[in-house]
């Protein structure tokens, strides 16, 4: 059954819902908490995107599903990146922008969201992302 009448849109909706469901399952949340899983996805994507160089942010985005890529680039100003953030700054940014309390705090949220996205990101690209981050921040990456 097609929800939109366009296979590309249906596929990206399915993939995005799968990512959100995986986040919810990691925390044991019911589907009714979809806004919370979406906020977690958006918050982590924006923090990571803003820490990367323009080139690396674009390369990572190319591997994301279409709808998630839109979330990733929402409000992005490439003239203001990369923002210099070390581990504590990065986690504090996630903590300050995610308005919900979750077990394990910002670090666990980051791990959960990245884990939900990893099936779309090649190992080679993931290594490029890790290499472009400060060593203390790269240790947070699963």
Mean pLDDT across residues? 93
- Tell how many strands the DSSP assignment holds: 0
- Indicate the CATH topology: Globin-like
Query: Describe the biggest sheet?
Result: none
Q: Could you say which structural class the secondary elements and strand pairing correspond to?
A: mainly alpha
Query: Which stretches are poorly predicted, pLDDT < 50 over at least 5 residues?
Result: none
CATH architecture: Orthogonal Bundle
- Domain module count: 1
Structural summary, described in words:
The chain is mostly helical and 142 residues long. The chain has one domain: Uncharacterized conserved protein DUF2267 (Globin-like, Orthogonal Bundle), CATH 1.10.490. It is 65% helix and 0% strand. The chain is built from eight helices and no strands. Helix 1 (7-27) packs across helix 2 (34-51). The longest helix is centred in the first third of the chain and has 21 residues, at 7-27.
Task: Pick out its properties.
mainly alpha; 142 residues; 8 helices; Globin-like
Map the helices and strands.
Elements: H1 7-27, H2 34-51, H3 54-61, H4 66-73, H5 87-97, H6 105-117, H7 123-132, H8 135-138
């Amino acid at each position: 059954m097609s929800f939109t009448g366009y296979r590309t849109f249906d596929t990206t909706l399915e993939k995005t819902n799968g990512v959100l469901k995986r986040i919810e399952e990691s925390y044991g949340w019911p589907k009714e908490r979809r806004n919370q899983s979406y906020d977690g996805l958006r918050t982590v994507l924006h923090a990571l995107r803003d820490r990367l160089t323009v080139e690396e942010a674009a390369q990572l985005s190319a591997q994301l599903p279409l709808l998630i890529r839109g979330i990733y680039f929402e409000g992005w100003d490439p003239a203001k990146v990369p923002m210099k953030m070390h581990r504590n700054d990065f986690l504090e940014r996630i903590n300050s922008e995610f308005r919900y309390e979750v077990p394990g705090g910002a670090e666990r949220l980051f791990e959960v969201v990245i884990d939900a996205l990893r099936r779309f990101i090649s190992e080679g690209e993931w290594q490029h992302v890790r290499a472009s981050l400060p060593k203390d921040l790269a240790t947070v990456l699963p």
